[in-house]
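Handout for the seminar on molecular recognition.
Each group receives one record of this type.
Step one: identify the two inputs.
Step two: read the structure output and locate the region that could contact BIS(adenosine)-5'-pentaphosphate.
Step three: write two sentences on what you found, then compare them with the reference statements printed after the record.
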Amino acid sequence: MGPPGAGKGTVAKVLAKKIRIPHISAGDLLRTHMRKKTELGKKASLFVDKGQLVPDDLVIEMMRKRLLQSDALQGFILDGFPRTEGQAKALDKLLSDEHMTVDHVLNFDASNKKITERLSGRRICSKCQEIYHLKNIPPKVSGICDRCGGELIQRKDDAAGTIQKRLEVYREETAPLIRYYDEQKLLRHVPADLEVSDLEPILEKLMK
Ligand code: AP5
């Protein structure tokens, strides 16, 4: 959990590789649907492009299908889900039906200055969605993904006006979930302003 640009996706990808479980990002799944112009993608883009949340029923069904795939049976790292109390309750129900539980909830605390700097410099691969930053985490060859050779693009919802809307939506709809998980004693705070390499040992400790 954490505001847009806090580094959730970047760190989740590093952790997933390390502990060999899939990184399941609601935002990545929605962008894939949007790129393929599926029915869900067409509906989702009406919300995502404006920085609003996609309605719970659509997101919950998408995540339910993904979490029941065989690679997720040994666990997974969720990124960007749940984002509302309705989604958190649906996740609890889904996990309990599958005899699973949430082990840790990592909350990324990032300053507004870092958020703005990170979102304005972010580029993602148009094919595999790998995340880069023009200054902090640049690709080896400008504009080209190191991993798959895809073209790097700027996300449509990283436009300045849309970032403000996403921050508002985060504060109003998602931040209250911090309390939901704190009450269950699952919440761990991540000092997200740090560089990725400095965060790794901290995360290892937090997840013990
Ligand atoms: P989503 O894709 O989840 O966007 P978000 O939550 O706004 O988060 P971001 O992806 O912007 O940021 P991040 O924290 O992952 O940062 P990143 O690692 O990229 O969702 C997009 C949209 O989809 C939503 O607005 C909504 O419309 C919809 N949606 C998604 N989930 C939904 C749900 N559950 N319900 C309803 N709607 C939903 O890092 C940012 C930049 O900083 C990168 O350039 C990176 O290279 C750099 N960076 C990261 N960490 C560091 C570091 N430690 N040091 C230096 N640079 C760093």
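Reference statements: The radius of gyration is 16 Å. The longest strand covers residues 105-109.
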